[in-house]
Design a protein that fits this description.
Keywords: Purine biosynthesis, Transferase
Number of helices: 7
Order of helices and strands: EHEHEHEHEHEEHH
Strand order of the largest sheet: 3-2-1-4-5-6-7
Helix content: 25-40%
Low-confidence stretches: none
CATH class: Alpha Beta
Largest sheet: 7 strands, mixed
Structural class: alpha/beta
Enzyme class: transferase
Number of strands: 7
Bound molecules: glycinamide ribonucleotide
EC number: 2.1.2.2
Organism: Candidatus Rhodoluna planktonica
Pfam families: Formyl_trans_N (PF00551)
Length: 196
């Protein structure tokens, strides 16, 4: 059974989808804990499923590296095989990434390398893109630059708002993320090979 820690910052709809998927013992993965950088609404999903939570806010630390050390200690307490960033909206410093990568993956609402960063949906609309999508990728020391694991595209509709588009993206994103975690658990995806 693949053991997973999920980190979130917001509403946690991707987390919820993973929690539901892992209820099936045949899925092959189990979420041990959920962490956040703030008292995020999405932590309620973990509590609903009886999964422990922790919050490590950067505001309590003098530097990003000190914050990341404590976040990492909280993650490693659970000895996960995989750490999933599911709407975790902070850039993780090198000390965190190098301790976990390639067993550290992120889901991002664009077809990377297009529109990295924290406003991917807004940036795609502002650029006049007609297609966007989702990328699940290994986290490396850059911002949304790590090796891609899976991508899925969708057409942008005329006059679509940022929130409408993001909601449509999230529907396919949840499916992609579930399939990636399942395939890692079932050894159909080998993160070490992808990161070479
Ligand atoms: C997701 O669309 C995720 O890709 C995005 O935040 C959303 C979280 O939704 N992450 C990023 O933009 C990271 N750069 P959720 O809280 O409902 O799962």
């Amino acid at each position: 059974m693949l053991s997973v820690v999920v980190l979130i910052s917001g509403s946690g709809s991707n987390l919820r989808a993973l929690l539901e998927a892992t209820e099936n013992p045949l899925f092959g993965a189990k979420i041990l804990a959920v962490g956040a950088d703030n008292p995020a609404d999405g932590l309620a999903h973990a509590e609903h499923f009886g999964v422990p939570t922790f919050v490590v806010s950067p505001t309590a630390f003098a530097s990003r590296e000190q914050w990341a050390e404590v976040l990492l200690a909280n993650v490693q307490h659970f000895k996960p095989d995989l750490v999933v960033l599911a709407g975790f909206m902070r850039i993780l410093p090198q000390n965190f990434v190098s301790a976990l990568s390639p067993n550290l993956i992120n889901t991002h609402p664009s077809l990377l390398p297009n529109f990295p960063g924290s406003h991917a949906v807004r940036d795609a609309l502002a650029a006049g893109a007609t297609t966007t999508g989702v990328t699940v990728h290994i986290v490396d020391e850059g911002v949304d630059t790590g090796p891609h694991i899976r991508q899925a595209a969708l057409d942008i509709l005329p006059d679509e708002t940022e929130s409408e588009l993001h909601e449509r993206i999230k529907v396919i994103e949840r499916q992609q993320l579930i399939e990636v975690v399942r395939d890692i658990a079932q050894k159909k995806i080998h993160l070490t090979q992808l990161s070479r």
